[in-house]
Amino acid sequence: MKTKLLVLITILCLVSCKESNKIERENEPAIYGVESEDKEMNAAIEKANQTLNDFNIGLSNPKAQSQALKVAFTDSNGTEHMWVGNVEFNNGKYSGILNNDPEFVTEYKAGDKIDIDSSKISDWMYLENGKLFGGYTIKVLRNRMTDEERKQFDAESGMQID
User: Fold this and answer.
1) C-alpha angle with apex 95: 93 to 99, nearest 5 degrees?
2) Helix, strand, coil shares of the chain as percentages rounded to 5?
3) Burial class (CB in 10 A: 0-12, 13-18, 19+), 62
4) At 39, which helix (H) or strand (E)?
5) pLDDT at residue 15, rounded to an integer
6) Intra-chain end-to-end CA distance of the chain, in Å
7) Are the C-beta atoms of 66 and 87 separated by less than 8 Å?
8) Most CB atoms within 10 A, among 2, 16, 91, 127?
9) What span, in angstroms and rounded, lies between the C-alpha atoms of 5 and 24?
10) DUF2314 domain location, by residue (predicted)?
């Protein structure tokens, strides 16, 4: 259930954002690119990093579900930000399972166990009773959706977003 929800979140967060570039993939969710100079997205990433301790609290909260970190993966082909689920925090280090197949980065695939460099975290999220905590980049993308897309996203994700 956790993986299914996180994949759904990934798909829905990347659906039809007005200010993004869409890449269609056969049998994979579409990807929407965001420019590296996007001030609103960069502010969301900064906020996520400033509040990462709130994610750590969520990891130890038995009511929290679907904990995930969004991580920047970079190789010679570029940078992709992808969600890592089943997150564990041991000895000050995060690890988890990659939820997405990348489009450009070739070193990883969905299902890979990932050791996470904290400096590469671009967002975090968890749900408690359906309410989204964190998810700062999700909120930016959701706000860029049309009213119809936002309604569909809200209905399909089941998340309560402030």
Assistant:
1) 150
2) 35, 35, 30
3) exposed
4) helix 39-50
5) 37
6) 23
7) no
8) 127
9) 21
10) 38-160
| Residue tagged 């967060």 (tokens) | 13
Structure tokens at 68: 């995930």
Q: Determine the average pLDDT of the residues in 16-32.
A: 55
Query: Would the pLDDT of 8 be above 50?
Result: no
Question: Of 133, 132, 120, which is closest to residue 81 (Cα–Cα)?
Answer: 120
Identify the CA nearest to 139 among candidates 53, 30, 45: 45
- Residue 127 is encoded by which pair of tokens? 């749900």
Other C-beta atoms closer than 10 Å to the C-beta of 118 total 12
Report the distance separating Cα 139 and Cα 132, nearest Å: 10
* CB-based contact 114:84 (threshold 8 Å): yes
If you search the block for the tokens 């082909």, which residue do you land on?
A: 77
Q: Which two tokens stand for residue 41?
A: 């997205």
Q: pLDDT tens, 120-160?
A: 999 999 999 999 999 999 999 899 888 998 898 889 888 99
Give the Å distances, CA to CA, from 103 to 22, 26, 70, 117. Answer: 12, 11, 16, 21
Boundaries of every domain in the chain: 2-157
